Amino acid sequence: MLKHNVWMAGFLIMASGVMAQEPVLNVQPPAAAPILDAGTSPAPAKVAPAPVVETPAAVTSPVVPNVTVPVVIPDAPVAAVVPVVTPSEGVIVETPSQAWNNSSWQVGTRYLEVQLQDKQRGTPENGSFFGTITEITEEQDSAPNKVYLQYRLFKSPVWLGVSYDHVMARTMDDSNGDGIPDLGGGDGSEDLQGVIPYLQAAWDNESRFSPYVQVGLGFYQAEFKPNNWGRDGKRFVKATSNVRGVELAGGLNVRLYKNLSADIFAKYMKIEDISGDWFFDYGDNYGGEFFMTMSYVAYGAGLNLRF
């Protein structure tokens, strides 16, 4: 009886233990869900990757120096370039070519080689220049004295100018009887000096070369200068003293330095014929008609300066 009671008591204890364990096991699962949401012990195992992800983010953030470096580098050269460009632009405003184009005055001088157009006329005492003079030749003025001055009109390509001109023709005669006129038998020289007001059109550009053309009207003082044996009134000429001429010319200015340039020049000058009379034996005897043709072509070079 006692054993039976003991066995029953043990059975009840075992049953109560089983009963007590089942509710604990049943309570654990519902509690596990809220514990996982609340971030208990299982949560840290899965949260561990989160700090690992934040570490590369922290590594990328120091890349900020890449932003500051390009900002600093361009600022320095830009600041250095700006002052260099600004003064250069100020100088470019007045480049040599622009200063050349903006100049209002030009002064220069030339040397010209002259070639007379009508050097022969008639026969001795018959349609000659006068008397036995049937031929004339150029007498070159070797000095570079053909000065000129011109002014630009209204900042345009048109210039108004005036130049000095000098041309001489020496008479020739057959003094040695060989049938060929020579200087030894000449009676003297015709001398023309004057001024030529002109109008010029110049094509200035950015290059060193500036071509131009011009037309002018010459006003000359004409004088015949007899040689030694014709002086002292033995022979003298009474002829036209004032003649005019028309100039057609052109050339090329070549800038050498700043506003200084070389000038290549050519022109044709149509001058009125000079006419009159000549006398001999101290003017007591009439010698005949005097005639002189002074039209010429000339070419040469010089220097000029604009300002």
Helix and strand element order: HHHHHEEEEEEEEEEEE
How much helix, percentage-wise, in residues?
25-40%
Number of helical stretches of at least 4 residues: 5
Distance between the termini: 150 Å
Order of strands, main sheet, comes to: 1-3-4-5-6-8-9-12
Short description:
The protein contains five helices and twelve strands. With 307 residues, it is an alpha+beta fold. An eight-stranded antiparallel β-barrel has the order 1-3-4-5-6-8-9-12.
Description:
With 307 residues, this protein is of the alpha+beta class. It has helices at 2-38, 42-47, 49-60, 65-92, 96-102; strands at 105-116, 135-138, 148-152, 158-172, 188-202, 209-226, 235-239, 242-257, 260-271, 274-280, 285-292, 296-306. The chain has an 8-stranded antiparallel β-barrel with strand order 1-3-4-5-6-8-9-12. A 3-stranded antiparallel β-sheet has the order 7-10-11, with no helix packed on it. The longest helix is centred in the first third of the chain and has 37 residues, at 2-38.
